[in-house]
C-alpha cells in the first residue's frame, strides 16, 4: 500500500526556494487503479518521482507497504524501485537502435537469469501488453508510437513490479492509440491485480481509473469529475 502523509517538496536552485508540494496526504490500496489529475505545473510529476522512489520529499512521510521510505539513501531507494515499481513515461524512453525484445529484457541483465530466460521473460511481457510477435525483433525506431509505448509498458513489467507508475503515458499518442494503451493498463489491473497510478490532464484518460486524485498548486483539491 502507498500512503503519503503531509508530503512537502521544495526545490532550491540557487535563488529563491520554491515549494512545489505543500502538504499532500493520500492512500492508494494494493490493486487500485488511480489517476492523478491537475493542471500543468501543479506538481504531478514531482509527486510521481517521490512515489516511485526516484526522489525524496523535503518534509512528510512516505510509507510503502508499511515501511517508511522517506529518509532512505539513494542505494536503498534503488533497491525498492527494482523490486516493486515499474515506470512508464510520456516519451517512451526506449533505446533507439535496439530491438523491442532487447529494450524489454535489458533491465534483467544484472539479475541471475541467463540469456534464454531473459528473452523468454521479455516475450511474455510483450505478449501481456498485446504486442505482436512479428515485431519482437524490430528496432524501436521502426515502431509506431503505440507500439513503442507498449514496449515501454512491457519493460516496466519485466521485474514483475506490484506498482506501475505512468506519467502522461498517452501524451504523445493520438486518441485511438491512447485508448489502446489505457486498455492495456486496465487489463494489467483487472487481470494481474497490479496497482496502477496514471498521471494525466485529460479526463478521457482518467476515466479508465477507479478513482481520481486532483492536485492543484501542490495541494489536493476536490474537483467535479468531468466527463463522467
Ligand atoms: N528539479 C526541479 N527544480 C526546480 N523546479 C522544478 C523541478 N522540477 C519541477 N520543478 C517545478 O515544480 C513545479 C511542478 O512541476 P511538475 O511536478 O513537473 O508539474 P506537473 O507534472 O504537474 O506539470 C513547476 O513549476 C516546475 O517548474
Ligand atoms: Mg509532469
Describe the structure.
This protein has helices at residues 44-51, 74-84, 100-105, 115-128, 145-157, 175-190, 203-206; strands spanning 2-11, 18-28, 33-37, 59-64, 67-68, 85-89, 163-167, 195-200, 211-216, 219-220. The protein is α/β, with parallel strands linked by helices. The strands form two sheets. It has a six-stranded mixed sheet with strand order 6-7-8-3-9-10, sandwiched between helices. A four-stranded antiparallel sheet has the order 2-1-4-5, with helices on one face. A hairpin with a 6-residue loop joins strand 1 (2-11) and strand 2. The longest helix has 16 residues, at 175-190. It is globular and about 50 Å long. The mean pLDDT is 94. The structure holds adenosine-5'-diphosphate (ADP) and magnesium ion (MG).
Number of helical elements: 7
**pLDDT < 50 runs, ≥5 residues:** none
Sheet-strand content, in percent, reads 25-35%
What distance separates the N and C termini?
Answer: 27 Å
CATH superfamily: P-loop containing nucleotide triphosphate hydrolases
CATH uppermost class: Alpha Beta
* Known CATH architecture: 3-Layer(aba) Sandwich
CATH topology heading: Rossmann fold
- Chain-averaged pLDDT: 94
SSE arrangement, N to C = EEEHEEHEHHHEHEHEE
* Tally of domains: 1
Compute the gyration radius: what is it?
18 Å
Query: What proportion of the residues is helical, as a percent range?
Result: 25-40%
Structural class label: alpha/beta
Features:
single chain, 228 residues, Rossmann fold, 6-stranded mixed β-sheet, 4-stranded antiparallel β-sheet, 7 helices, globular, binds adenosine-5'-diphosphate
